[in-house]
From TrEMBL:
Belongs to the FAD-dependent oxidoreductase family. It is found in: Mitochondrion. GO terms for cellular component: mitochondrion. Induces apoptosis through a caspase dependent pathway. Reduces mitochondrial membrane potential. InterPro entries: FAD-oxidoreductase/Apoptosis, FAD/NAD-bd_sf, FAD/NAD-binding_dom, FAD/NAD-linked_Rdtase_dimer_sf, Reductase_C, Rieske_2Fe-2S, Rieske_2Fe-2S_sf. Residues 60-155 form the Rieske domain. One of its GO terms (biological process) is execution phase of apoptosis. It comes from Struthidea cinerea. This is Apoptosis-inducing factor 3.
Amino acid sequence: VEVKIEVVIPEKERSKEEMSPNGKASPLIYKVNGTARHYHLEEHPIASNPYHNPKDVVEASVCHVKDLENGQMREVDLGCGKALLIKESGEFHAMGHKCPHYGAPLVKGVLSKGRVRCPWHGACFNISTGDIEDFPGLDSLPRFQVKIEKEKVYIRASKQALQTQRRTKMMAKCISLSNYNLSSTNVLIIGAGAAGLVCAETLRQEGFSDRIVMCTMDRHLPYDRPKLSKSMDSHPEQIALRPKEFFCTYDIEVLTEMQVAAVDVKSKIAVFKDGFKMEYNKLLIATGNTPKTLSCKGKELENVFNIRTPEDASRVVKLATSKNVVIVGASFLGMEVAAYLAERAHSVSLVELEHVPFKKFFGERVGRAVMKMFENNRVKFYMQTEVSELREQEGKLKEVVLKSGKVLRADVCVVGVGAVPATGFLKQSGINIDSKGFIVVNKMMQTNIPGVFAAGDAVTFPLALRNNKKVNVPHWQMAHMHGRIAALNMLAHGTEISTVPYLWTAMFGKSIRYAGHGEGFDDVVIQGDLDELKFVAFYTKSDEVVAVASMNYDPIVSKVAEVLAAGRTIRKRDVDAVVFLSFRTGDMSWLTGKGS
């Protein structure tokens, strides 16, 4: 018996000259009536031979059919690129071997029930189709066709597919553009972050071909916001989630530097700050949050930053090089900025009200281990105190005065003391907002107003993992999923959210991965060595594991995420067995079934 794998390649996108149906790049001239809903997928002829250029095809023998047992994966080399070969339930599957998000090797991930989960950030891909099923990331994987002959495994693949290792799902385009009104749209998306973009893309993937308008206060097209603190000197073009041509090709209009001031849900009209009004049929609110500022004297001084844009981040790096930096707040943003600047600045000081960083999120023991890593990299902590004054010299920041009486030299100050939901413009709208300013939605991301959806950092939603408790989960991965669920339910699919939260932070070349929702945990069970920064921490509440974090212990977090996604409960007494079976032996049999 021989196994052959043949790549199935989607037809190439049309040329950049065909960026929109009217042949123009500007989105502002598109006109839609805002009421009709059309469903028309762009048609691609199915060729009998998927390889248009025989010279672009490679074929190689990669292994024997008996080399893989059920539940195993292997990364195989074809000479000009690699593929991921999988065997599950007696069937072979093959697809791209790198996660399209940040390039993680999927062979080191988790295979379970027809999908592979990325070991780094938790994205999931269907092994039969290559489609992305959980996030982060936007693209799917190329899928390769498998054939079995004479007990050898061959892969026949396009060199281009092996090199790109990603696939954008087929999408619809906007149709019937000629007689539409500029001031109306079928779908209006307020906010152009991950939630907004995934919503727009999902609509097009599902065949929606009416007008979609996204608006943002930012000057840029959607970009990878987590990199603002993890890779601070990135240019906007380097961290763009999609190139400009993508939005033109699929008729997703993005209005930059446009702020919505109010929403009239009865008339279905959004009123912009400059007075412009736009009617909508369906509305997604994905405005994210607004950074908190300091309340002390001197908070308006030059060189005091809330990092919100790529320009903020690059400006901080430039001003901090060989200078004295003070960071206020040991938040994820504050700690990541401190780590990034530690090798560039003359000094980095971090001011925090708690006695250890990340105490509420990771617990005291993990927090102390992280704090020690920072101290070993020349970051100085000033804990259990606050800023009382920012002093200036000739209009620029000179010193940061703490309530403890300590005075710190400072050429740059970065504020990372948390954020509040950017929902102030909705106060008189009738949309249900809780006491903290979060938009309340159900499992389908619907608000209390028909046709109005909300997603991302600005919402609270029922988390299946915690018995449908209403929670706010301000994570990049969750924003992606919110956007997808909202889009599906705009199209009346009736899809409920059930994803497991997954996040990561990167500091000094090391990453902490985290899955679950540990709010209110009452104990932490730690396996491994905190001093060596090689550990896994299980967060428990009333004997049940509600979250897990790890450093240098991949892919344990992704494995636990799959357990939780399957509806299983891990008890505190089972932690030793979980670590042994999943990490040391690689046995995934405990994933099957439901219950404890």
